[in-house]
Structures are given as C-alpha cells and as structure tokens.
Write a structure and sequence with these properties.
It is built from ten helices and 14 strands. It is of the alpha/beta class. A hairpin with a 5-residue loop joins strand 4 and strand 5. It is globular, with a radius of gyration of 18 Å. The strands form two sheets. The chain has an eight-stranded mixed beta sheet. It has a six-stranded mixed beta sheet with strand order 8-7-6-9-11-10, covered by helices on one side. The protein folds into two domains: about 140 residues, 3-Layer(aba) Sandwich (Rossmann fold); about 100 residues, Hypothetical Protein, Haloacid Dehalogenase-like Hydrolase, Chain: A, domain 2. Pfam families: Hydrolase_3.
Amino acid sequence: MYQVVFSDVDGTLLNDQHCITPLTLLTIKKIQIPFVIVSARSPSGIYPILEENDLVCPMICYGGGMILNHENEIIYEQGMETSLALKIINYIEANNFDIAWCVYSFDDWIVKDCLDPRIIKEEQIVKAKSRQGNQIEIKKLSKVHKILCICNPEYINDLEAKLKIMFKECQIVKSSNILIEITHQNISKAFAIKKYCDLLNIDIKNTIAFGDQYNDLEMLKIVGCGIAMKNAPLEIKKEVKQVTEDNNHDGIYFALSKLNLFKEL
C-alpha cells in the first residue's frame, strides 16, 4: 500500500505556464496520503505554489539539501562550506563563463546582478526576489545550500564537464538545458527521499515519485513506483518502468488514477 507521493515541480507538477492544472490540483487534494513536493527550488520559490493553490505539503528543497514538514519547519538540512562555495564562484568569475550565478543559503538568494535578464526571468518563474551581492556577502553566510548556474544552452554541457572536473567534492547536475545545480556532494533528491522516509519510518518501496529531468532519475529508480512524465528526455523514459502523460495534460492525475489512489473526481 502506497504511503507517500513525491513530485518534482517544474515540468512535472507545473505545466509550461508554471501553473498546476485544475484536474491535477483536485487530484492532489483528493488523495489520502501525503503529497511531498521535491524541487531544486528554495523554500521561497515553493511557498507561492502552495499559497496560490491552497495546499499544505511537506517540501524537499535545494535538490535534497533541505526538508521541511507541512508546517514549514526544517526537519533536515545539509549545505556546503561557505569557503567551497566561494571557490566555485571565484572559478566562474576568473574564467568569464557565460553564467548568471545564484547562491542560496536557507531562504537567502544572492546574485551578482539583479538586472541580468536571466535573473529577472528566474524571479518571475519562482515568484521570489533575489538580492544583489558579491563574494564579500557570500563569505558572511553560515553555509550554502545550493549554487545555481543559469547558462547559455550552447555551452552548458562543456561547462558542466569543466565544473565536475574542478569540483569533484560537489554534486553537480544539469536540471534543464540552461540550468546547472551545485550542492553538497552527498545531496540529491533520492538521498532526501530516503531521509524523509527514515524520519517518518516509511518503507521507501511504498512510495511513488514523479519527475521529468536528469536530476530526478535517481529518485524515480529508488522508490517503489517511479513515473516519468511524457515530456521527459528519452533517456529518462527508457530508465523508468512507467511513463504518464505530459505536464500540460494532467500526467499526475492519470498515473494516480491508474493506481486507484482516489475515487473518481
């Protein structure tokens, strides 16, 4: 019997207009087991989704670097040392990479240039506000939960390879054709799902997960029922047992309906 549903946000829970479709929203509210949001976003990037849709859900943020319960209390967090984050930012700056970088610590979001169009677009998508800062500001942080690199899609694979060579002590994952996520080496969505299940004494085989990107693949493979969205890259869909409809056509609803997790809506 399934006990929890885990879901990625962008490209999975949200459609291409960054909204939850009405049928998917009704499904989430009807199921009788917890629905846990799993995202690379910060907490402040998830709160608007909950508020706009009148949802109360636990959250896994920063790609697994922080877990919050349904009352928005932190029950687990793991970040990288500030000194390591500074090394990464200094490396990016020294090489003049075409990257708009973001540094996250708890619910603080520091960027190099608030007026960079890539930052403005990211703010619009997550409905949260960054603050401009530099290495001096980063040094003041107690720890860093994530570095986000917004990249030129033509060069992202090369940049990802270079970062992985330079910073083997980090978890470095491409989460879209323009985004690279850098976190503590032990952090991943799969790790956080295991941690969540351990904290609540849940057998991970009794859980479901939805995702659409490369940083979702490990979590889709460790749960009892991993389901890829139809809009996921082909490589992802080949690796998982089930594929549902895409994020624009209520993939979560159709999959949970097949699993008989709610009465007909």
